Amino acid sequence: MSSVIRGLLGLLLVFAAEAAAESVRIEQVTVYPDRAEVVRLVEMEVASGEHRLRLADLPAAMDADTLRISVREGDGFALGGAELRRVRGAERVQPRARELEDAIRDLEWQGRGLDNRIEARNLQLRLIESVAAGSDESSSSGNRLAALESIGNHAEDVLAGRLALASEREALNRELERLRRELSDLGQAQRDSREALVDYRAEAAGTVALELRYVVSQAGWEALYEWRLDTDAGQLHIIQQAVLRQNSGEDWEDAELRVALGQPAAGGRLPVLSPWYIDIAPPPRPAPAMESEALDRAVVAEARQMAAPQLEGSEMAAAWRIPGRVSLPGDNSTRRFVLSEYRLAAEVGARTVPRRQARAWLFASAEYDGEAWLPPGRVSLFQDGSLVGQRRSSGLAPGATLEASFGVAERVEVSHRMVRDTRGSDGVIRRQNRLEREFEIEIVNRYSRVLEVTVLDQLPIPRDERIQVELSSDSRAPSVRDFDDQAGVVAWQDSYQPGQKRQIRFGYRALFPRDVDNLSGW
Predict the structure, then answer these.
(1) pLDDT tops 50 at residue 144
(2) CA–CA distance from 354 to each of 83, 357, 411, 440, 454 (Å)?
(3) What domain range is 502 assigned to?
């Protein structure tokens, strides 16, 4: 037996011993914010002895280092080494591209059919021409006229049929050109995949069930919220949703779906801090000045980045299981699921900044009493059923206080006017310049309920120690200074009865030396 024949027989034996999957399904998917873990179940028939099995159609976006294969069912079956390789595919990635290819292929076949029918009409015309050319001139004139009329009628029918077919072919060509342009716009990306070749040993032939667990990129979820404020009930309804998308290269069909808070991309190791040295800076180079300043800024930025604390790996391992079984195609389309809902007791009030705008905004604050961390996400704000705005939440921990604005408080009247703006001097021995301003703020509650109103304003903050700023003698003392840790911001907090009106007198003066002509920013 020649070496070539022996080699071919050996190759045939390898392929004959290679088992392929008979039943494959996605059993479970856990979606993280930036990737997903997939559990795939595979059932196959295996032969006894030592052989190799092939697990095909694994997604190309799979992280090869995360692939784990275990035996779920199969007595006397043991797995050996595995080889993972990429398979270049001829199928396009995008579903729309695959649809276009199928449509173009169908139209091309229709075009070939039309071309055949047009050629048949051409053959008929040539036959008619040959009959007309061979007509017997010795025939009587009556017979000749009848024959010519019959030939002419047949020719007209054939020409009309050919014209209709040509028009149909032209319309088909236009549609083909349109579909080919659309396909070209979608690009030429093909759907690659991976396959695993796994050695095994089986004591007996039979059916085995394997579990494949791996992580894929190009998948994830983001949080989306609705904060619905009921002002009459004093209640804040929080609806937490997850928007999922995946383009991993496989469709998740009828799978158990979990949405998790963890960040696998962060890894599980704490970063290592390298030694951070400081020293006396060398004298600056005389030129160029702009380059020196840029270098200094770069050094400061690098030092800050090195000193910033970082924690990789999260202790927040909460996950939500979506009821039932879910299908999510791998075309990057989105699906939205409600994860949780909370109804919180809310304190409803109003806030206003009269010096900026003569109107007030409804504000609500509530303590979040849920058990799970609410990750950052987009928020739609509703006041009594009406959409009033959108914002982004930076996240909310259990026990934290949530505060948000829920649109304009239409029934709170606000006015703001300046009543004094003077310049003078103080002192006898050590005279100083004085700038003074005073304002009158008026608030009216037109709601039929008691309303807590917070009026916000600000005092100027001196940058030079020679400048002194103080409240004027006629000012009402604010309830809070440096409101919400904002330097210089003052607040007056009062409960307003229905129809109640209040005036707030607010003024301040700035004192500075006589040798200073004026103040910047005043």
Answers:
(1) yes
(2) 70, 5, 15, 10, 11
(3) 412-513
